[in-house]
Amino acid sequence: MKTTIDFPDKLLHRAKVVAAQRRTTLRELVVRGLESVTDGMSTESAENARQENLKRLLNAMRASNTQPMTPLSREEIYDR
Asked: Where are the alpha helices (DSSP H) in the chain?
């Protein structure tokens, strides 16, 4: 699909220089840049979802009895 984008002159000049140094086209440089930004967004949202799931799992695994254990005497062990 074709589109028109208005770049600042200095940025466009720098992008053309980088494209020439990499022996690629300006179009390919822009496509790669947009892909890296949009892929990063989906990766970030996936990472955030993973973090939330991990928090829920850890909360579910937390013991309801949070009092420290006390050693049992011999009689208490055998009474149980």
From this structure: 9-21, 26-61, 74-79
